Amino acid sequence: MRAVVTANLPSRDFGATEAFYARLGFETRFRNEGWMILGFGDTQVEFFPHPGLDPRESWFSACLRCDDLEALHARFSQAGLPVDATSVPRLTGIFRPEHAPRMFALVDEDGSLWRVMDETEARG
Questions:
Q1: Do residues 40 and 49 touch, judged by C-beta distance below 8 A?
Q2: What pLDDT does residue 2 have?
Q3: According to the model, what pLDDT value does residue 120 have?
Q4: pLDDT for the residue 3
Q5: Which residues partner with 62 through β-bridges?
Q6: Rounded to whole angstroms, how far apart are CA atoms 38 and 90?
Q7: What is d(CA 29, CA 33) in angstroms, rounded to the nearest whole number?
Q8: Could you tell me the CA-to-CA distances from 94 to 70, 77, 83, 103 in Å, in that order?
Q9: Cα 42 to Cα 52: distance, rounded to the nearest angstrom
Q10: pTM, two decimal places
Q11: Neighbouring-strand partners of residue 115
Q12: What is the C-alpha to C-alpha distance for residues 115 and 107, in angstroms, rounded to an integer?
């Protein structure tokens, strides 16, 4: 039996969300007025409408684990996102939290936090 869990994140505007993630390399796999699924390689993320969301108050998040952290960071960096600590959206550099694998963070236009982790380190 195969089972899959996907992140489920808010979107104030599906068109804007779709365009933002396209800059990162995601493709649209499904979209109607109440649901959107974007894919990136073998993974995908689902979005639901949340037009009243304040991006600076968002507490939504997801994890993306990859086996080539540097390559994925380089790809996402091509989108030209701000790199400071407060902008929404933004992209951090690669860092290592205490007792955790190397990672970088991505905050999308709706304030959702992505923790992008080095899967090779997470496996131990």
A1: no
A2: 81
A3: 86
A4: 80
A5: 114
A6: 19
A7: 14
A8: 8, 11, 11, 5
A9: 31
A10: 0.93
A11: 63, 105
A12: 9
Tokens of 48: 């639901």
Alpha helices in 1-124 (DSSP H): 14-24, 69-77, 119-122
State the pLDDT at residue 5: 85
Q: Which of 106, 96, 120, 88 is nearest to 26 (CA)?
A: 106
pLDDT along the chain (124 residues), means of 10: 89 98 98 97 95 97 95 97 96 94 97 95 63
Which residue, chain included where needed, has tokens 């649209």? 28
The half-sphere exposure of 19 on its side-chain side, counting CA atoms within 13 A, is 6
Closest CA to 58 of 11, 122, 98: 11
Q: What is the pLDDT of residue 101?
A: 93
Cβ-contact 62, 112 below 8 angstroms: yes
